[in-house]
Design a protein that fits this description.
Strand order of the largest sheet: 2-1-6-5-7
Number of strands: 9
Strand content: 15-25%
Distance between the termini: 29 Å
Bound molecules: adenine
Oligomer: single chain
CATH superfamily of the largest domain: SPOUT methyltransferase, trefoil knot domain
Shape: elongated
Low-confidence stretches: none
Structural class: alpha/beta
Order of helices and strands: EHEEEHEHEHEHEEHH
Length: 225
């Protein structure tokens, strides 16, 4: 998979890909992530990429021209499955969306900033609009990092058996069951006996029951999805 991220603050997006699972995925060659500074695609003085909105009102808007240039340059080099725009009024990201995005080959992610982008960018170039939650960030960069993390870890070959995504919370619309590690007893608090029994079919049943109980208690909305 190849992900091209268009941003006015590429600095924000460097470190998420320099550690842990995302770095390993890049080192293995399973995914390529390319950052594009929108300011490299403007002819205006001071590398201007934003302007005041027509009709008045506070806040700057990213202009269509540099975004068009950047997206057109990328599209002249390869085909893209989606051009995703990170925005608080997009569809809220969930595990199902992450699962389907992880199957794509080439994706562009456009990060908004200030008041967002000229509406014509959304009308002409964007194929999917994604929010990471009902709150407003200063820009789409942290949202793009969250999106990349949740998608990249699902690409086959990224996680090994120990970190398998199959047992993740949300994978079957269920929260994950409780987990324990050594010691088996801590200050009088014991690990459930079943987990020490060695009876793996029964352990599996216990985990399924606990996952269901936890979901019913904490996120009953997931069971009606
Ligand atoms: N940009 C600003 N707020 C955002 C959000 N909640 N999700 C995605 N992109 C955003």
């Amino acid at each position: 998979m190849r992900i091209d991220i268009i941003t006015v603050v590429p600095e924000i997006l460097k470190s998420p890909f320099e550690a842990s699972i995302l770095k390993r995925a890049i080192d293995k060659g399973v995914v390529e992530v390319h950052l594009h500074n929108l300011r490299d695609y403007t002819d205006k003085s001071y590398n201007q990429v934003d302007d005041y909105q027509f009709g008045g009102g506070a806040g700057m808007v990213l202009m269509i021209e540099p975004i068009d240039k950047c997206i057109s340059t990328l599209k002249s080099q390869r085909e893209y499955d989606e051009v995703i725009y990170m925005t608080p009024d997009g569809k809220t990201l969930n595990q199902k969306m992450a699962n389907s995005l992880s199957l794509l080959n080439n994706v562009i992610i456009l990060c908004g900033h200030y008041k967002g982008v000229d509406q014509r960018v959304r009308d002409l170039f964007v194929t999917k609009e994604i929010s990471i939650g009902d709150y407003v960030l200063s820009g789409g960069e942290l949202g793009a990092a969250v999106l990349c993390d949740t998608v990249i870890r699902l690409i086959p070959g990224v996680l090994n058996n120990e970190t398998s995504a199959l047992t993740d919370t949300f994978q079957d619309n269920l929260l994950a069951p409780p987990v324990y590690t050594r010691p088996a007893e801590y200050k009088g608090h014991k690990v459930p006996d079943i987990l020490l029994s060695g009876n793996f079919p029964e352990i599996e049943t216990w985990r399924e029951d606990e996952a269901y109980k936890r979901t019913e208690q904490l996120r009953p909305d997931l069971l009606n999805d």
